[in-house]
Amino acid sequence: MTALPAFPEHAGPRDRDLLAGRPGRPALSERLPRPWLFPLLVFAGTWLLIVAAWYGSDVIYGHGHPWTWHFMFKDARYYLAIAEHGYKPTSPFPWGRGSEIDRRTAFFPLFPLLIRLASYLTGGSYLIGGLAVSVAAGAASAVGVWVLAARLCGRRVADRAVTLYCLFPGAMTFGMLYSEPLAVALGVGVLLALA
Questions:
Q1: DSSP readout, 45-94?
Q2: 26: closest CA among 155, 150, 152, 153?
Q3: What angle do CA 88, 131, 143 make, to 5 degrees?
Q4: Cα distances (angstroms) measured from residue 185 to each of 59, 74, 125, 190
Q5: CB contact at 8 A, 130 and 79
Q6: How far apart are CA 122 and CA 110, in angstroms?
Q7: Which of 189, 190, 193, 171 lies closest to 180 in space, CA to CA?
Q8: Residue 98, Cβ neighbours under 10 Å: how many?
Q9: Which pTM value belongs to this model?
C-alpha cells in the first residue's frame, strides 16, 4: 500500500488534484500566455460594461451627459478639490456642505496626493490624472485579489474571485473617482506581505 503525498497547507484544489495524480480542469488563467493577464482582462471587461452603462442610461433616459458627469459622482468632487487645493483651513469646496472639519479630514489623503502627482504627469489636468489613478488602482486591486486568491486556493478559485470582485462590488467604484480600489489594492498588498 502506497502512502498518499502530503499536501502543503496552502495548496489549492488544482494543486491537490495534481499532487494526488488526478488530472484537473485547467483554470482560464492557465490558458493565457501569462496567468496574471486574466485579472487585467476581467478588469478591462468591467470598464467596457461601465462605459456601456453610462451611455446606455443616457440613451434610455434621454440625457446627453459627458463621461465626467458619471465619473465625478457625489464625493468624487471632494477628492478632486482636495487634489487641486489641498487640506486648507478655509474650505476649497464651492458647494459648502458640512462643517469645515468634516470636509478637511473625511477623505483618504493618499488618493488626492496620487491624483495631484498624476495630474503633473498627464499635462496638468486633475480630471485626467484622477482617471489615470482610478484605473491604475482598480487594475492593481484586481491583480492583487487574484494573486491572493491564487496563493490561498489555486488559480481556478482566483479566476472566480477576481470576476466576482470586478463585476459586483468593484464595478460601482471603478467607474467613479472614489478611493475604494486604492484601499483594496493596499489591503491586498498587506495581506500578501503577511502570507
A1: HHHHHHHHHHHHHHHHHT----HHHHHT-TTHHHHHHHHHH-S-SS---T
A2: 155
A3: 115
A4: 34, 22, 24, 9
A5: yes
A6: 18
A7: 171
A8: 13
A9: 0.80
In the chain the first and final C-alpha atoms are separated, in Å, by: 36
155 and 14 in contact (C-beta within 8 Å)? yes
Residue pLDDT, tens place only, 112-128: 999 999 999 988 899 99
Amino acid identity for residue 79 in this structure: Y
pLDDT in tens, 37-75: 999 999 999 999 999 999 998 999 998 888 888 899 888
Rounded distance between C-alpha atoms, residue 127 and residue 122, angstroms: 10
Please state, in angstroms and rounded to a whole number, the distance separating the CA atoms of residues 27 and 161.
12
Please tell me the total number of residues recorded for the chain in this structure: 195
How many Å apart are CA 12 and CA 31, to the nearest integer? 18
